[in-house]
Predict the 3D structure of the following.
Amino acid sequence: MTSFPPALMLKGNYALSAKGRLFRTLLTSFQYIISFALLVCSTFIWQQNQYMKIQDTGFARDEIVIAGLPHKGQELSQFTTFKHELEKFPEFKGTAYVSTKLGASDVYSMTGSKYEGEEFYHYEIRVSPDFGEVMGFKLLEGRFFLASDTISSNKYTYCLGTKRIKDEQHIPTDTPFRGNHSKSNYIVGYIDDVIFTSSRVNAFAYSPFLFTVESQLTKLPYAYIRIKAGSDVPTALRHIHETAEKIFPGYPVEVNFFNTYYQQLYEKETNQQYMVTLFSLLAIIISLVGVFGLTIFETAYRRKEIGIRKVYGAKTSDILWNFNRTYLRIITICSIIASPFAWFFMDKWLQNFIIRINLSPWVFLIAFAIIIILTLTIVTIQNYRAATSNPTENLKIE
């Protein structure tokens, strides 16, 4: 402020001077750059979140309900009775038991196996014999488990492998290989790849699954219950709670849909989406406030020019376009500057995921259009009065 001419400062027209207008324009341009980048980033984060949540998990997950059952001190007959009681209701298609809560974590019990001298790692999940049918897995080769697979054997642990194990390890069905225990693993069939983890890149993400049959249901505390399509969901949930209370009296049973747990895997990304979206809205609002203030000073600075143009026959639309094209040029330049930064940061962020969207240029064009429409609307409304006023009044202003 001390570097400006004294006469200009005393006259009080710094805001309307060329330097004052340039300074305001630079501040508004900086706000535009931030607003554009945040708007683009929030859109890509939203797209990635939606893409991850609706990705194909390899089975019909919408009708799967998970019931956490008490297992310590319980009898095998209670688990069998719980399954049979549920199957009496028309709303249910089947019930299977699992050793862990699949779909609720990125990390499961990982173990190593060896085939033809080559060691490989995989998740090992213990399940009841009817797990494959209840979950609706796509069988690629061989068969699902049979009840006879649970018969105690000193030789094999029967397994159901995923396509990734088949493609990478090339283990034929009905061929034993060494597992992490005294018994050899014996794959009875292969299913299509299934997803029970998030898409994040980490040391455990997307490791192949190997499901092993377990005869002792008391070691499988999670019941995976499939509800028939078109059934009354509240009635089905009520039946589950009532049956659990009857079979396991005094023990609270937690019942939730598989999708509820699966959506929670992306809670971090959802919070990021909300945060970036909020900052985008705030930045856009601040930018529009800056445009509003800049427009006021610009109008005051150019009122004589408006009057002269009106005298020489300029139309209201011509005057409005004369103002709008200035901001159109500013927004275009700011968007071009902000685009490489937004592209770079989103590309780095998307590298955190194995399954990810492509960066589409349409998002940048839509963000540009949104900011253009909002800005030009404010500029047009603000300048309309000056563009339609009597030119003699504008020419009288000193």
